[in-house]
Design brief:
The protein is mainly beta. It has helices at residues 3-15, 399-407; strands at residues 28-31, 48-52, 58-59, 72-76, 82-83, 96-100, 120-122, 130-131, 144-146, 154-155, 168-170, 192-194, 216-218, 240-242, 264-266, 288-290, 312-314, 322-323, 336-338, 346-347, 360-362, 384-386, 392-393, 418-420. The chain has a 16-stranded parallel β-sheet with strand order 1-2-4-6-7-9-11-12-13-14-15-16-17-19-21-22, with helices on one face. A two-stranded parallel sheet has the order 3-5. Keywords: Glycoprotein, Leucine-rich repeat, Repeat, Signal.
Length: 469
């Protein structure tokens, strides 16, 4: 039961206490804020028990020994600060345990011992600081462990070694600064690994060497400055890869080659300055890519050409000053292009010729002053165009673009406004008349009279003196 469902049931019981409990909740029992101790009595027919906002500070030894039928136990925001060894002893049918949102700082090793049917362990949003080897001893059937939102900064080697059937491990939002090469090496069936929003500065090259079934890896929100070219030896099943919000300055050549199932790839909010000429492979499932909020000012020719299925490309919030047609080679199916918040002051004449399917183009917050009137003509399917917050110079050089804007004003998502000349500042381009778009004329220049002075030339004379003897 989710937290929302549990609180909904509790509210229902409080509002209508005289009514029978709904049939679908007959197997569940909820203890609320009035409870300070765990009742040690048999509760017939109940297999799922929830403690919501209770005042149980300690889960004592054999707390549920009289109720071996329990399959699910949850302590949600219940002030649990400690768990005694053997607290879950006797719960041979337990499948899921959740202790979340409590001031719990430590969990004794072996507390889950002999719970052979346990499949899900949720220990999120507590105050846990370290994980000891032996904590998950003997849990061969556990498929999911959630440890996110704690204060974990240390994980003992071998902590996860006995979790041979684990499929999902959630360690995000902790204080983990390093992980050893072998920390996950025994998790051969692991599909999802979430390490986002930690303090990682590097990831060992061989950390995923034995993880042949990985489908999702989340490393975003760390302090990674580089990635090993051999980081992902098993690429055939990976569907989601999150790398955003790190300190990456570049990426290894061919790093994203041979990922046939990759659907989600995030690279925004890094410090990327340059990219290798060959970075991407075909990636037949990838439809969206964000490189926004980096330090890119140029791109290699044909960088995205292998990405034939790409529908959305985000290059916003970088340092581009111009856009070249060669950047978009091979993106004939692209539908949305985000270029806002750069420093773009010019576009190549044929920059959009490779993008016949584009429907949305965002060029707001750049340094555009004027553009040729045929710039957007290749975009025959364009339905949304954002040109606002550019310093448009509304003079004779804007006549053709003005004509195009007037004819296609319905696709502008916001106003394109003149920055100069002063007389037109603040006015929408589409509202102007063509005769208002003039260039200042220079006054005629008067040539100064030229005086030619002829200077006579004198031919030098040579005197030949002949002498005789």
């Amino acid at each position: 039961m989710s937290r929302g469902e549990a609180f909904a049931l509790l509210l229902w019981l409080l509002v209508k206490p005289s009514l029978c409990q709904p049939e679908e909740y007959k197997d569940r029992y909820i203890f609320s804020s009035s409870v300070t101790d765990i009742p040690r009595v048999l509760i017939p027919g109940v297999t799922k028990v929830y403690f919501l906002s209770s005042h149980i500070e300690t889960i004592p030894k054999k707390a549920f020994f009289e109720n071996p039928q329990f399959e699910e136990i949850e302590f949600l925001e219940s002030n649990v600060a400690s768990i005694e060894p053997g607290a879950l002893e006797g719960l041979v049918n337990l499948k899921a345990v959740e202790i979340a949102g409590n001031p719990l700082a430590t969990i004794p090793a072996g507390v889950f011992k002999d719970l052979e049917n346990l499949q899900t362990i949720v220990l999120k949003n507590n105050k846990l600081r370290n994980l000891e080897k032996g904590l998950f001893q003997g849990l061969k059937n556990v498929k999911e462990i959630q440890l996110h939102g704690n204060e974990i900064d240390q994980i003992e080697e071998g902590t996860f070694d006995e979790l041979e059937n684990l499929e999902r491990l959630h360690l995000a939002k902790n204080n983990i600064s390093s992980v050893s090469t072998d920390l996950f090496s025994k998790l051969a069936k692991l599909q999802t690994l979430r390490l986002y929003e930690n303090q990682l500065t590097s990831v060992p090259e061989d950390i995923f060497h034995n993880l042949t079934n990985l489908k999702e890896v989340a490393l975003s929100g760390n302090k990674l400055t580089e990635l090993s070219p051999k980081l992902f030896p098993h690429k055939d099943k990976l569907v989601k890869l999150y790398l955003e919000n790190n300190l990456l300055t570049t990426l290894p050549p061919q790093f994203f080659v041979d990922f046939p199932q990759l659907k989600t790839l995030t690279l925004q909010k890094n410090n990327l300055r340059t990219l290798p000429p060959v970075l991407f492979g075909t990636l037949p499932k990838l439809s969206s890519l964000s490189l926004s909020e980096n330090n890119l000012s140029t791109l290699p020719k044909g960088l995205f050409s292998p990405l034939e299925k790409m529908k959305t490309l985000d290059l916003s919030k970088n340092h581009f000053v111009t856009m070249s047609a060669e950047y978009f080679e091979g993106l004939g199916g692209l539908r949305e292009l985000k270029l806002e918040n750069n420093k773009i002051h010019s576009l190549d004449a044929d920059v959009f010729h490779e993008l016949p399917s584009l429907t949305t183009l965002r060029l707001a917050h750049n340094d555009l002053r004027t553009l040729p009137g045929d710039t957007f003509q290749p975009l025959v399917k364009l339905t949304k165009l954002d040109l606002n917050n550019n310093p448009w110079q509304c003079d004779c050089n804007l006549v053709q673009l003005h004509s195009w804007i007037v004819s296609n004003s319905k696709i502008l998502t916001s106003a394109a406004v003149c920055e100069s000349p002063e007389a037109l500042k603040g006015q929408e381009i589409k509202s102007l008349n063509e005769d208002q778009l003039i260039c200042p004329t220079r006054p005629p220049t008067t040539a100064s009279p030229t005086t030619t002075i002829s200077i006579p030339t004198t031919t030098p004379m040579t005197t030949v003196i002949t002498t005789t003897k």
